[in-house]
Amino acid sequence: MIDLTAVRADTPGAAERVFLDSAGSSLPPRPVLDEVIGHLRREAEIGGYVAARERADDLEAGYGVFAELLGAHPDEVAFTDSATRSWLAAFDAVPLGKGDRVLVTEVEYAGNAIPILHRAQEVGAEVLTIPSDAVGQVDVEALKDLLDERVKLVSLVHAPTNGGLVNPVREVASAAHEAGALVLLDACQSMGQLPVRADDLDVDIISATGRKWLRGPRGTGVLVVRRTAADRLRPRLVDLHSAEWVGPDEVELRSDARVYELWETSVADRLGLIAAARYALDLGIDQITAEVRARAEHLRTGLRALPGVEVRDIGAELSGIVTFTVEGHDAVAVRDHLARHDVVATSSHLSSTRIDMTRRRIEGLVRMSPHYFVSPDQLDRAVEAVAALT
Ligand SMILES: *Cc1c(COP(=O)(O)O)cnc(C)c1O
Q1: How many percent of the chain have pLDDT more than 90?
Q2: Which of 116, 123, 149, 192 lies 20 to 30 Å from 218 when distance is taken between CA atoms?
Q3: How far apart are alpha carbons 54 and 49 in whole angstroms?
Q4: Which atom of ligand 1 lies at the shortest distance from residue 24's CA?
């Protein structure tokens, strides 16, 4: 059990409002805030280079912390400034040519779909969508029918931005690997609320963000590239950190995942991100998963009882993302109404997950993403605020 009083004491913002947007940008706990602000102060005192040197051991230890969190080796971890940066660095390194295929799921995120489609158009590759099954998750049997030697990459979203779905990662990875394809897992909406381990899930690459369920600072991201996949990738976006200028005409790339990093970074934010991962590991990922799941179910139960409200989450296993529509009110209007009641929710639109939303004929959804620091009576207040509309 997570000590609700203790985690709420670490999260002052959670007392003042019903905060239900950990899928957007969560509230960092006090140790994260202290780390970031403390380091910025230190930089102002002695300069950024010396301040970074003082924390060199802690920065290095961060690779081990994320290796533990994500079931990888420290050499397989890289830090970036967003999940998209992580994802793009890895995707750019996947060799793709004419006639090659990339498979995506119906819940593919716009930030991934756009670079995939753009690059496919440039090189003459094909992009195919794996259908979903009757419950709404990626259909593994349909995937097997699509897999052959032309498929170089399966882009898999673990938990989409627009609903409670959790995709069956291990089954997808195992089928993809049998056909020789790489699996790139977008764990943006799972890291920090669900177990995400490269070793258990057997994926080749993981990209994830700091600011969502992990409760890290904005402008942070992480990337895992497993050694077993490294020699099939061709990193291109390299600098003087990821490679060395060893002769006038010669460069040598790093052999670990840091080949995907750039030299310049916000050290304060990196330290905050590491603190956020430690905080989650100290609470226990399984405990977090159980608490978030209970919060989300509490909300869904309350919302389902309201006339005119339809909970839209699909899938066999559900995450902490709760989505719904309210008859006669568009999603933005509901979000704004909730804000007036000190309930922080958000809305998710067709443009973010076009394939899924088009298929389900939904323009916009209200999204509530309760973390473990939200109290059950706050969830009831959120449901009451929705009820005031109906
Ligand atoms: C938020 C999100 C991203 C992008 O993360 P950034 O850190 O903003 O780059 C990618 N995929 C999914 C599913 C997301 O929800």
Answers
A1: 99
A2: 116
A3: 9
A4: 1
Provide the mean pLDDT of the chain.
98
| Residue 188 in contact with ligand 1 by CB distance below 6 A | yes
Q: What's the structural domain count of the chain?
A: 2
Q: Give pLDDT tens digits for 130-183.
A: 999 999 999 999 999 999 999 999 999 999 999 999 999 999 999 999 999 999
Is 213 a pocket residue for ligand 1 (Cβ < 6 Å)? Answer: no
H or E segment and range at residue 274 = helix 267-283
Check whether residue 186 and residue 138 sit in a common domain.
yes
358's enclosing H/E stretch is helix 354-359
- Please tell me if the CB atom of residue 159 comes closer than 6 angstroms to any atom of ligand 1: no
Residue where one domain finishes, among candidates 250, 282, 314: 282
- Which residue minimizes the CA distance to atom 12 of ligand 1? 188
Domain co-membership, 39 together with 108: yes
Phi then psi for residue 333, to 5 deg, are -65, -40
Label residue 249 by pLDDT band (50, 70, 90): very high
Is the pTM of the predicted complex or chain greater than 0.85?
yes
Please check whether residues 340 and 298 belong to one and the same domain.
Answer: yes
94 and 137 co-located in one domain: yes
Residues 176 and 86 placed together within one structural domain of the fold? yes
Q: Given ligand 1 and candidates 186, 206, 214, which is best to mutate, with the most ligand atoms within 8 Å of its CB?
A: 186
Q: What is the DSSP letter of 198?
A: H
